[in-house]
Amino acid sequence: MKETTSRLKNFVFRIEIARKITQFLCFLLLNAIVFGFQPLPLLLPVLHSIWTPQKTVGDAFSVLQLMLYEVTFPWLPIAAFLLIAVVLNRATCGWVCPFGFIQDLLGYIKRKHSRVSSRTHKDMIKVKYGVLLIVLFVSGSLSILLATGVGQSFRRALGAFGSAPFDVLSPSNTIFATLPEIVLETRYAIPYWVETGADILGAIVNGILSKSILFWIQLAIMIGVVGLGIYIPRSWCRYLCPHGAALAFLNRFSFLGLERDPVRCTKVGCRSCVEVCPMNVPILELPWEKFTHPECIYCLKCVSACTTKAIRPQFP
Ligand code: SF4
Ligand code: SF4
């Protein structure tokens, strides 16, 4: 018995450690320009930011918005979404996305997380589709109007929201672009302040206080999302992320899935897989044979948590 428990612990440890290492390496790869890497000709449906100067791999949804703004059909980002959806589905959320990695880390801050009632959860998961549709509507209609030569006033009216309406408010953009930019600006200004004998702390505070209202809105959204992520695991991915929404919509075409063995699964009295799932997937209500679920990010925590090894990933 002791031996089985220790073997199980090792197995759980191995999957989670492998995932954390992969997430960490992907996080480095996506920001590898700081280590002298060149940008890679690669688009992925993971949340980053279009305005991050140090990104190595393109964020497909940001590029899609930008191509629409430039009145170009976004076939490349669409192809990236379709290809990933068919081959890996939301496994990119569980293993690659840098913002997903940040949320996983936030989830470690509190040991006991808040529970969301199943009714609220069912209502809330629809919100991300709303975010996706609003962004596609704004970017798509701007593109069509510009293509027909009558979109200039709409473009002016959109202002900062014209080129990538989602990225302007995205918490990922605040973390990967807006805040690093402030840090860099401050770093470059410090020698000048030292030379002129200025009050450095005062200059930093004044610089922050003089930021536009848009900056404060971005900051408030980021703090809200980070705070929520501490109490509800992967809350951004579950309820708000348009990347997640697009991949969730395409999940029915995925080769990747999970399978639950009816002989090994004790089901009654054991809800280990459901309890551990960060995305609230109702695993026990899904079919025994290979299943995919729009919310599953293939973190494999359910596979690790099952003491009878009843759950397995399936491909194709
Ligand atoms: S749902 Fe969005 S933020 Fe979450 S892991 Fe997927 S792409 Fe990243
Ligand atoms: S169903 Fe399993 S693999 Fe999918 S998100 Fe939940 S724990 Fe992770």
Structural class: mainly alpha
Ligands (ions, cofactors included): iron/sulfur cluster
Largest sheet: 2 strands, parallel
Strand numbers in spatial order across the main sheet: 1-2
Could you characterize the architecture of this molecule?
The chain has 316 residues and is mostly helical. It folds into two domains: 2-254, no CATH class; 256-316, Alpha-Beta Plaits (2-Layer Sandwich). Helices cover 59% and strands 4% of the residues. The chain has 16 helices and four strands. It has helices at residues 2-30, 60-69, 75-87, 91-95, 98-107, 118-124, 127-147, 152-158, 165-169, 171-196, 200-209, 213-231, 235-239, 242-250, 272-276, 301-305; strands at 43-44, 58-59, 257-260, 311-314. Strands 1-2 form a two-stranded parallel ribbon. Helix 3 (75-87) crosses helix 14. The longest helix is centred in the first third of the chain and has 29 residues, at 2-30. The radius of gyration is 22 Å and the shape is globular. It starts with a helix and ends with a strand. The model has no long low-confidence stretch (mean pLDDT 89). Bound molecules: iron/sulfur cluster (SF4) (2 copies). The site of one iron/sulfur cluster has 11 residues, from helix 5, helix 13 and helix 14.
